[in-house]
Amino acid sequence: SVLPVFTGKANCPHYARAELLADYLQANLPDFRVHKITQHPDKWEQWLHDICEMNGWEHRGSPIIWRELLDRGGKGLLLGGVNDFLEYAQHYYGITSMMSSEEMLDFAEENLQAHIEIEKEEEEIKSLIKPLQIWITSASASICYQLIPLLANGEVFGMTTEISIHLLDTDQFKDILCGIVMEAEDMAFPLLHSISAHTEIDEAFIQADIIIVLDDVPLNHEVKSLENYIREVSEICQVYAPLIEKNAKSGVRVISSGKTFVNLKAMMIMTYGKSIKPENVIAVATSWESAAKAMLARKLNMNAAGVKDVIVWGNITGCNYIDLSHAKLYGYDCAIWGPANFPRPLLNMIYDSEWIHSEFLSAQSSLSSRVCHCVGMLPAHAVATVLRYWYHGSPPGEIVSVGILTKGQFCVPEGIVFSMPVRFQNGNWEVMTELEINEMTQEVLGRLAHELIQEKLIALREIKEMHPYGADKITS
Questions:
Q1: Helix, strand, or coil (residue 148)
Q2: Cβ(314)–Cβ(418) under 8 Å?
Q3: Could you tell me what percentage of the chain is helix, strand and coil, using 3-state DSSP and rounding each to the nearest 5?
Q4: Which of 68-77, 310-319, 345-354 has the highest mean pLDDT?
Q5: pLDDT (tens digit, 9 = 90+) per residue, 16-25?
Q6: φ, ψ for residue 302 (rounded to 5)?
Q7: pTM of the predicted model as reported, rounded to 2 decimal places
Q8: Contact indicator for 402, 267 with CB cutoff of 8 Å
Q9: Contact criterion met (CB below 8 Å) for 401 and 286
């Protein structure tokens, strides 16, 4: 079947003439159906240029009429302008338009007013929609480019929740941000209400529901000391925190991600933003979790999706500990058979205990290196996963590692951001304090906490340099 499409300037008398004749044909012929599109006079020339370029047509003036081949697909067949349609109607149906010039002008004026009213109604409806306001800092980073489709496809917040994304970076990255905005708009995600670029820091975090902090400092210890990098991160957070307090919503959720000082960024945002709820600030450890699971899956020759409950303790982008004592395997092909949801303790399945204590543990440094050199797919997926869990809950019984402000859980000193096992439910998270840890793990946690306490004290300028564990007893 064929569907004629009529498009013209809302105030065009020739469009009015063609439209009324099409309405007459539609009312009197059982199989004649039309689709009408009006454009505001100010937008008409650009719209006409774009539609002709897309279809390979040459046409000037209003209206433009073509036929869509509904059953065959492909681009439409150009019919032409008003005179072409009049000839078409006369030839096929023996009907033509007898409308006078004065009537054409009157109908054109009515069309314009109706078009303006419809546009106004659409804007009012848009204003009633309250999309989630998501701000992403250092948005020129490759992780942001990978993250936007994950946020906009409906899997993170739900298929009925619209989002507005705000990309924040310095003025030198303005062209990159504009490029990302244009590409995201071209993809026409149904749930992406809007996306915008910002380079003015005073505009940051306005009405934010979610803030994803991606700021990184490129580490080069030949240029700067570790202590100077820590102070640099602290200064960034000293700018962000008051703006979050001033501009964001009171229940704003802040996610710290990136390749460097993930715990410290979360810590300093809470330190300098006293009114920001501590339970609403977390640091993402899922990239390290995923990389460790993949390494174990390769050893066991199985799908990494079947490896669960690997715990990342401590300083996510610094010294951390990958704990396998609670890890489980699902769908592992071995001598013990069971249903798909039957878990097997991972340590019981890896008979090469020497591999665990030597190769796996020594490989943790290369694991961190690999995660830090990711182009963006893995960390973007990590952020999206944690957000989905935060809004819709993590899988029942499954352990998720997240950096949170400590309150003495697992005997870790209070007041630092430390990665530990949590579960997400009902829009909140809670530490899985029921998990048992052995003495060796407890000793490791003490060492990891020491590094984070040192980072915090340097960031607050209470000490000048890092002290090795056990050198001087430093507590928070």
A1: helix
A2: yes
A3: 45, 20, 35
A4: 310-319
A5: 999 999 999 8
A6: -140, 175
A7: 0.72
A8: no
A9: yes
Residue 37 DSSP code:
E
In this structure, are residues 168 and 247 in contact, taking their beta carbons and an 8 Å threshold? no
Query: DSSP character for 91?
Result: H
Contacts of 457 (CB under 8 A, 6+ apart): 463, 474
Q: What is the number of alpha carbons within 13 Å of residue 262 lying toward its C-beta?
A: 30
Q: How far apart are CA 28 and CA 454, in angstroms?
A: 83
Helix boundaries (H) for 29-156: 41-55, 82-93, 101-128, 142-152
The pairing of strands 132-136 and 328-329 is: unpaired
Q: Look at residue 359 and tell me whether its pLDDT is greater than 80.
A: no
Distance of CA 232 to CAs 72, 237, 369, Å?
A: 61, 9, 22
Cis upstream peptide for 395 (omega within 30°): no
Among residues 475, 422, 472, 423, the alpha carbon closest in space to that of 446 is found at: 475
Which residue, 390, 142, 405, is CA-closest to 268? Answer: 405
Instruction: Indicate the Cα dihedral angle 147, 150, 153, 159, nearest 10°.
Output: -120
210-213 and 253-256: which strand pairing?
Answer: parallel
Do residues 225 and 231 touch, judged by C-beta distance below 8 A? no
Q: 217: Cβ–Cβ under 8 A, 6 or more apart, which residues?
A: 229, 232, 233, 260, 261
Distance CA 274, CA 297 (A): 43
Distance of CA 408 to the CA centre of its chain: 32
> Residue 467: its pLDDT value, please?
81
Question: What sign does the dihedral 232-234-237-242 (CA atoms) show?
Answer: negative
Q: Which of 3, 143, 165, 173 is nearest to 73 (CA)?
A: 3
Average pLDDT estimate for 376-403: 95
Closest CA to 8 of 108, 157, 148: 108
Question: Using one digit for the tens of pLDDT, what is the confidence trace for 67-82?
Answer: 887 555 556 789 999 9
Mean predicted confidence (pLDDT) in 374-388: 90
